[in-house]
Amino acid sequence: MTDCIFCKIIAGEIPSTKIYEDDEVLAFLDLSQATPGHTLLVPKQHVQDIFAYDTDLASRVFARLPKIARAIKASDPAITGMNIINNNGAIAYQSVFHSHIHLIPRYKEADDFSIHFGDHSDQSTPAGLEAVAAKIRTHLEA
């Protein structure tokens, strides 16, 4: 895709700080660096988001995650954890519409990165949860 910034990075038209590359994926440091070592893993095949993946692409991309995550963690003994995040759609904070996975090293609780979940326990009755699950299950592919 000619106007996609990640496609341009993959093609070498825009510089990046590469962490890992093979025939299927490219991993490079995110310019925003939520924490030091914040890395993006992108499939070389242009695909907008997780909803456009097929099982073959998913297995090719996600198979690389543990290797890259372990390398990031091993690079700094101060890393004590990692958030792995995949935003899909503008409402979910996806800002580049070429699928990408954020690997965000965590150093300490106050490392200026957090995710906040609201309390929706009032919506989590057994009957309510089963109704939501039933709706989802009707759309699962065999």
TrEMBL record:
Q: Which domain of life is it from?
A: Bacteria
A Pfam family name for this chain? HIT
Listed GO biological process terms = nucleotide metabolic process
PROSITE patterns reported for this sequence: HIT_1, HIT_2
Q: Where is this motif: Histidine triad motif?
A: 98-102
Enzyme active site:
H100
For this chain, one GO molecular function annotation is: catalytic activity
Q: Where is the HIT domain?
A: 5-115
Question: Protein name, please?
Answer: HIT family protein
Q: Which organism is it from?
A: Lacticaseibacillus sharpeae JCM 1186 = DSM 20505
